[in-house]
Amino acid sequence: MECQCQTAVEKGEQFLAVDRIVKQVGNDKSNLIQVLEKVQHELGYLPEEVQSYVAKKMSVPLSEVFGVVTFYALFNVEPVGKYKISVCLGTACYVKGSGKIIEEFQRQLGVKSGETTEDGVFTLEACRCLGACGLAPVLNVNGKVFGKLTPEDVGGIIAQYKDAV
Ligand code: FES
Questions:
Q1: pTM, 2 dp
Q2: Is 68 in the pocket of ligand 1 (CB under 6 A)?
């Protein structure tokens, strides 16, 4: 049987992080997004039990926290890889072939959009316009933008980040 101790410790630490951040930012309802951003920055993602703990600490309904987390693309409810590859599927990028780019990432990484590789290195996702349509098709890896891509560029981008792990 799998030991549950580690999980309990991790959960305790997650809640302590929320306590600290809420104390630091303030538990006023208007600070909800700021609190969630800081919690995610520290934990990497916002699991359901953390969302409900934030709701309790800030005295807001869980449905409100859930609504914010699902509305803003910057929030993750699943653990994400060290490198998040966001391929733009906005109109300008799509007509220039970004569908083929994301397919190639899916093929080479062995994951679907929204999934993380087993080694925890890459999370692949599709996103809306990144505001760099002149460079279409475009993708973003942890904030760094790559443009004018072809499917042949995919292997090099993966290798570049894999080598840095
Ligand atoms: S549509 Fe891709 S950057 Fe605008």
A1: 0.69
A2: no
